[in-house]
Specification:
The chain is built from nine helices and 13 strands. It is α/β, with parallel strands linked by helices and about 250 residues long. The two termini are about 25 Å apart.
Length: about 250
């Protein structure tokens, strides 16, 4: 199978590309580094020529609902249009567990992406996953000043990005179903506790503050919506502690 990975150099995309190659697939990475601009559309049609499946793990880190919506809507439209012309038979998109009631900030963009796919005539599957273990390091890098780290109050059930990649490939190798079972992590966590344990593991002396975020976005984070509900789901195996000491973390 020829699998095109949009965002194939990112946090999840690099695992998708590597795992797809291990499974014997031909992998095409859609990224600006490889001469393909999905947001602008340049090089996309040629890159998708002969592709059977597109796995979309593109991302834009932003708290702006307008920016997130513009990014995910534009890239999804370009991928769907180019995929239709190239005869792609399955479009797989990664989304986030539990965002239905948080139509704000970054999650507004992911919901817009899901709505576009649901309203399209293209065969597709949306595969939702909970937040990644890798989120702890990403948040700490943005919110640390000296020995103080302020973390948005978040209840979640994190999963390893490498396991998300394997889940996406299982979905890609199957028929389009519209919505796959959710992938959730093995344990409930708070983001502040994850950041604090990561700092301790790395021998860093930091004070971690668990800070409530105002508005619908913050309420959704703190309520535990991102842990997932009672619908069909798969459960990851790697705990946050196991991930901290794993080779994957250093990648």
């Amino acid at each position: 199978m020829r699998i095109a990975v949009a965002g194939g150099t990112g946090t999840v995309g690099r695992y998708v590309a590597a795992a797809a190659a291990r499974r014997g697939h031909t992998v095409v990475v859609l990224s600006r580094r490889d001469g393909v601009d999905v947001l602008g559309g340049a090089g996309l049609e040629a890159a998708l020529d002969g592709a059977d499946v597109v796995v979309d793990v593109l991302n834009r880190t932003t708290l702006s609902a307008r920016e997130a919506t513009a990014f995910f809507a534009t890239t999804t439209r370009h991928l769907l249009a180019a995929g239709a012309r190239a005869g792609v038979r399955h479009h797989v998109a990664l989304s986030v567990v539990g965002i239905d009631g948080i139509d704000a900030s970054y999650y507004a963009g992911k919901l817009a992406q899901e709505r576009l796919l649901a309203g399209s005539a293209r065969p597709h599957t949306v595969a939702r996953a909970t937040q990644f273990h890798e989120l702890a390091a990403q948040v700490a890098a943005r919110t640390t000043l000296g020995r103080l780290t302020a973390v948005p109050r978040t209840r979640c059930r994190p999963v390893a990005a490498a396991e998300v990649a394997e889940h996406l490939l299982d979905v890609a190798e199957a028929d389009p179903v519209g919505r796959a079972p959710d992938l959730v992590g093995p344990r409930e966590e708070t983001l502040a506790a994850m950041v604090a344990r990561m700092a301790h593991h790395d021998g860093l002396h930091r004070r971690v503050l668990d800070v409530p975020v105002p508005g619908r976005y913050g309420t959704g984070l703190a309520s535990g919506a991102l842990r997932g509900g009672d619908g069909p789901r798969r459960e990851g195996r790697t705990t946050f502690e196991e991930w901290l000491g794993s080779p994957d973390r250093a990648r």
